[in-house]
């Protein structure tokens, strides 16, 4: 049967676009491998989260409307950042709930969730022969429920682990604190600098203590913060977005 | 002074931060283990939340029912609109009994009302009898945690404090010895007390009784040895039926410390013959919080402290950094309702990680309320010019692709070519402990365009 | 005094008025589906292991050997109060009119529990069974005698059992008094009893 191909609008969050193009590239290549029609709508900017989290939700309405305008025609909106996707789903409630807004909110997916839940795939043919530590970003974990949380009763599950466990040669390391926040938190990283840096330092240490070689996650804002600490302290840890690993054929 | 400033101060001693974090993480782990051991735990939380929501929607009726049942048991019921009235009522009861020595078990409400200094100014001795509270009382500090009031103190610090105030021998911080000495010291206070003040964990509308939970037995030692018992409660402590204790007592201690239940769950319905029991019902801003639809559910709180133990910020900033009677995540959503200006930094003392909402036994959406308080604060409180102009500008730039493109380019240009000293200076809080990302030649936009051209 | 009374009255009306104005529309009181908490566990074994977790000691004994067991557990006690006819070890007599301060030096109290709760090792003790309310707290050591068939699965069941009581004072006791207020170090024996032994008969 000739199924209509899924049309995906690729959402590359602003900081990834500007600072981590390789993450955007890996995301795009990965989606293309998975047999979906991917379009990167030109002129996209940001989801508005930095403003909303800082209390300037009112001032972000223009950004949010612009986002909806850019993505309203796609079957799915997929981005490599749980935090931004969570913001779209959770906080676009400030907009008038037109059919377009509702469609965008309902069809926005974090990359891993899209691959596992919508495409129903876990083995993407990747290989990556390293010891990997998974940082479970809070907005993905507790917001989008990409996995079970250590504080909630119930069966264990994890979208990212499902994908990583299928990567050839990859050894997923177990952490002491499985899902503690890294301390990024957007502007929190700057306005609560002392605590933010300490939280990041503690997270990095947990990965080092657990013999991790490559620290990964589905949210590059957390990774940017953790990488900043790793680089400053010249620690033996490489930081990569999960899309880069899933797109690897090492 | 903001939370960030006080947190920075606390972080000057990193080994103490590590110690504080580990001590509370240990409690959080005990909580997980104990909670997950209960069949239907998440449903139990759902029930706790549902019952509390019903209580708030019918609070006046339940309070009247509670009062009438308590009165028919011979209990005297008083109502206080604010802290001042609360303190006056307690003081007048003590006056009538000519009570000069008072023992008090843990009550965050009396902390909130600053009852101790009020009574002390009238020449009344008030002794906090919970060991942790006694420690901070001797140190002349407020509690730093609602369940573990002295969690910020090391055993060596307690040792010194006891040497000074109780005349103990130096023990190098031997907990058994120190607890034993405190037992003797407080036993004497219990024996001589004229009146006992307690908090209230739950007030049961359909019986008129109150329940007080302790591990030490201090509430009972106080109440049963003195002539007058004064129980002080916020209006939101009401639960409809006694049977609902079967829900809340299952939730409370497991959430608080990981114990299956506190050692003592005491049900006070009637005073002993020849004695008096009083209940003081206090508003002090609660009905105002009830009016705020977005923040109303904060009144579900049963004061277990689980949100503090799980909060990665609380664990690394200490309870005093919040400068409010109730610290931590729950305090950060309660305090702005009391004094928005004074506590306006607290809703920002969070990464919105959401773990607080997940551990909350009555399912308060704490992190969502933190987000909402931020919006209120920006609207109603004067914001730092710099932050405000950055946000306003970002709001415009990020809604206009052309401006965004330009801004992105210049920001990347600056990051790439500006001398290090310009990036890593005092004004750049990011760069104090973290490197900035390395800038590549193209951004994703550029790469994508080139690829499409070439393809 | 009149002034205070007036204020108090105003407090009541002001609070109730304010609640009426500010409360949301009535939300239903949820029904409790107790089946969600059903577990097929050994009530007595779980109860025993929970008593151990909360720092108590538990022994299964015959009615005839209660006193022998108590003597073995607590060999050197002189000031003993027994409020139950299941033990004759009492050396100090009390009644409802006894001044609770006189119990300051009681070494051991032997009382009966009304029911036990498997999920947390708690035992329901009423003022009627302890005669003097302060007794189970002020005594240095505490023995509670409990009939095995009075152990229930969880707190909801327990409240059904005690629903029809004469409500004056009652307490769930789970283990000896304890504190972890000094650096999270658990120390048994805070203000209440230093030890608890539960005798299941």
TrEMBL record, chain A:
<dbReference type="GO" id="GO:0005829">
    <property type="term" value="C:cytosol"/>
</dbReference>
<feature type="domain" description="Cysteine-rich">
    <location>
        <begin position="8"/>
        <end position="89"/>
    </location>
</feature>
<feature type="domain" description="Cysteine-rich">
    <location>
        <begin position="133"/>
        <end position="226"/>
    </location>
</feature>
<protein>
    <submittedName>
        <fullName>(Fe-S)-binding protein</fullName>
    </submittedName>
</protein>
<dbReference type="GO" id="GO:0016491">
    <property type="term" value="F:oxidoreductase activity"/>
</dbReference>
<dbReference type="InterPro" id="IPR004017">
    <property type="entry name" value="Cys_rich_dom"/>
</dbReference>
<dbReference type="Pfam" id="PF02754">
    <property type="entry name" value="CCG"/>
</dbReference>
From TrEMBL, chain B:
<dbReference type="InterPro" id="IPR024569">
    <property type="entry name" value="LutB_C"/>
</dbReference>
<keyword id="KW-0479">Metal-binding</keyword>
<keyword id="KW-0813">Transport</keyword>
<dbReference type="InterPro" id="IPR004452">
    <property type="entry name" value="LutB/LldF"/>
</dbReference>
<protein>
    <submittedName>
        <fullName>Iron-sulfur cluster-binding protein</fullName>
    </submittedName>
</protein>
<dbReference type="GO" id="GO:0046872">
    <property type="term" value="F:metal ion binding"/>
</dbReference>
<keyword id="KW-0004">4Fe-4S</keyword>
<dbReference type="InterPro" id="IPR017896">
    <property type="entry name" value="4Fe4S_Fe-S-bd"/>
</dbReference>
<keyword id="KW-0408">Iron</keyword>
<keyword id="KW-0677">Repeat</keyword>
<dbReference type="Pfam" id="PF11870">
    <property type="entry name" value="LutB_C"/>
</dbReference>
<dbReference type="InterPro" id="IPR037171">
    <property type="entry name" value="NagB/RpiA_transferase-like"/>
</dbReference>
<dbReference type="Pfam" id="PF02589">
    <property type="entry name" value="LUD_dom"/>
</dbReference>
<dbReference type="InterPro" id="IPR003741">
    <property type="entry name" value="LUD_dom"/>
</dbReference>
<dbReference type="InterPro" id="IPR009051">
    <property type="entry name" value="Helical_ferredxn"/>
</dbReference>
<keyword id="KW-0411">Iron-sulfur</keyword>
<dbReference type="GO" id="GO:0051539">
    <property type="term" value="F:4 iron, 4 sulfur cluster binding"/>
</dbReference>
<keyword id="KW-0249">Electron transport</keyword>
<feature type="domain" description="4Fe-4S ferredoxin-type">
    <location>
        <begin position="291"/>
        <end position="312"/>
    </location>
</feature>
<dbReference type="InterPro" id="IPR024185">
    <property type="entry name" value="FTHF_cligase-like_sf"/>
</dbReference>
<dbReference type="InterPro" id="IPR017900">
    <property type="entry name" value="4Fe4S_Fe_S_CS"/>
</dbReference>
<dbReference type="GO" id="GO:0006089">
    <property type="term" value="P:lactate metabolic process"/>
</dbReference>
């Amino acid at each position: 049967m000739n199924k209509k191909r899924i049309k995906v609008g690729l959402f590359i969050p602003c900081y990834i676009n500007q600072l981590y193009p390789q993450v955007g590239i890996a995301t795009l290549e990965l989606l293309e491998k998975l047999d979906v029609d991917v379009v990167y709508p030109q002129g996209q900017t940001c989801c508005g989260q930095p403003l909303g989290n800082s209390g300037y939700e009112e001032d972000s309405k223009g950004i949010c409307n612009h986002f909806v305008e850019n993505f309203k025609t796609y079957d799915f909106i997929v981005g490599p950042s749980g935090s931004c996707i969570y913001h779209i789903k959770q906080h676009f409630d400030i907009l008038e709930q037109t059919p377009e807004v509702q469609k965008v909110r309902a069809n926005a997916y974090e990359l891993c969730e899209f691959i596992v839940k919508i495409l129903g795939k876990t083995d993407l043919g990747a290989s990556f022969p390293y010891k990997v530590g998974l940082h479970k970003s809070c907005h993905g974990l507790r917001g989008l429920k990409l996995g079970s949380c250590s504080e909630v009763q119930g069966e264990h599950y994890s979208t990212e682990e499902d994908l990583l466990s299928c990567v050839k040669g990859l050894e997923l390391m177990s952490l002491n604190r499985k899902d503690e926040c890294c301390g990024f938190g957007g502007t929190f990283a700057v306005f609560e600098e002392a605590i933010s840096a300490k939280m990041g330092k503690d997270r990095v240490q947990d990965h080092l203590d657990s013999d991790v070689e490559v620290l990964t996650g589905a949210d590059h804002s957390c990774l940017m913060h953790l990488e900043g600490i790793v680089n400053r302290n010249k620690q033996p840890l490489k930081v990569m977005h999960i899309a880069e690993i899933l797109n690897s054929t090492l | 002074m903001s939370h960030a400033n006080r947190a920075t101060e606390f972080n000057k001693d990193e080994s103490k931060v590590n110690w504080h974090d580990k001590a509370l993480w240990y409690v959080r782990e005990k909580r997980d283990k104990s909670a997950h051991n209960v069949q239907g735990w998440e449903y139990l939380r759902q029930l706790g939340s549902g019952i509390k929501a019903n209580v708030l929607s019918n609070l006046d009726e339940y309070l009247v029912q509670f009062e009438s049942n308590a009165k028919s048991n011979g209990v005297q019921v008083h109502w206080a609109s604010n802290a001042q009235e609360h303190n006056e009522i307690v003081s007048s009861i003590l006056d009538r009994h000519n009570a000069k020595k008072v023992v008090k078990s843990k009550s965050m409400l009396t902390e909130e009302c600053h009852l101790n200094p009020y009574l002390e100014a009238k020449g009344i001795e008030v002794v906090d009898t919970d060991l942790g509270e006694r420690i901070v009382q001797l140190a002349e500090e407020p509690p730093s945690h609602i369940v573990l009031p002295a969690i910020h103190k090391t055993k060596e610090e307690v040792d010194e404090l006891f040497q000074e105030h109780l005349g103990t021998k130096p023990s190098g911080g031997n907990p058994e010895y120190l607890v034993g000495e405190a037992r003797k010291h407080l036993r004497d206070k219990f024996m001589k007390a004229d009146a006992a003040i307690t908090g209230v964990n739950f007030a049961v509308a359909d019986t008129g009784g109150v329940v007080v939970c302790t591990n030490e037995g201090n509430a009972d030692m106080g109440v049963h040895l003195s002539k007058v018992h004064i129980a002080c409660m916020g209006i939101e402590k009401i639960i409809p039926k006694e049977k609902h204790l079967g829900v809340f007592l299952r939730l409370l201690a497991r959430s608080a410390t990981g114990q299956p239940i506190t050692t003592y769950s005491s049900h006070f319905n009637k005073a002993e013959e020849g004695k008096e029991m009083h209940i003081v019902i206090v508003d002090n801003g609660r009905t105002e919080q009830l009016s705020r639809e977005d923040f109303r559910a904060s009144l579900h709180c049963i004061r277990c402290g689980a949100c503090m133990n799980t909060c990665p910020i609380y664990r690394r900033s200490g309870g005093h950094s919040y400068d409010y009677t109730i610290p931590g995540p729950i305090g950060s959503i309660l305090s702005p309702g009391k004094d928005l200006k004074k506590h306006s930094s607290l809703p920002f003392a969070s990464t919105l990680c959401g773990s607080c909402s997940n551990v909350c036994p009555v399912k308060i959406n704490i992190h969502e309320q933190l987000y909402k308080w931020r919006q209120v604060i920006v609207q109603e409180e004067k914001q730092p010019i710099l932050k405000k102009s950055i946000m306003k500008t970002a709001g415009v730039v990020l809604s206009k692709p052309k401006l965004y493109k330009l801004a992105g380019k210049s920001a990347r240009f600056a990051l790439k070519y500006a001398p290090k000293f310009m990036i890593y200076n005092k004004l750049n809080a990011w760069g104090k402990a973290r490197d900035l990302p390395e800038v590549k030649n193209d951004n994703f936009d550029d790469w994508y365009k080139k690829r499409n051209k070439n393809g | 005094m009149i002034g205070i009374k007036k204020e108090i009255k105003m407090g009541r009306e002001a609070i109730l008025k304010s609640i009426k104005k500010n409360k949301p529309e009535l939300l239903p009181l949820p029904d409790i589906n107790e089946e969600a908490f059903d577990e097929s566990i050994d009530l007595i074994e779980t109860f025993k292991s929970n008593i151990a977790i909360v720092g108590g000691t538990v022994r299964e004994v015959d009615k005839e050997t209660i006193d022998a067991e108590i003597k073995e557990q607590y060999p050197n006690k002189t000031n003993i109060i027994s409020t139950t006819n299941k033990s004759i070890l009492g050396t100090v007599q009390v009644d409802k009119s006894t001044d609770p301060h006189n119990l300051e030096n009681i070494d051991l109290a032997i009382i009966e529990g009304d029911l036990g709760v498997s999920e947390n090792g708690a035992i329901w003790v009423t003022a009627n069974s302890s005669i003097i309310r302060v007794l189970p707290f002020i005594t240095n050591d505490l023995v509670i005698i409990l009939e095995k068939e009075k152990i229930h699965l969880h707190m909801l069941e327990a409240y059904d059992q005690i629903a029809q009581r004469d409500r004056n004072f009652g307490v769930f006791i789970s283990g000896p008094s304890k504190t972890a207020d000094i650096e999270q170090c658990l120390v048994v024996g805070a203000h209440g009893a230093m030890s608890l032994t539960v005798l299941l008969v």
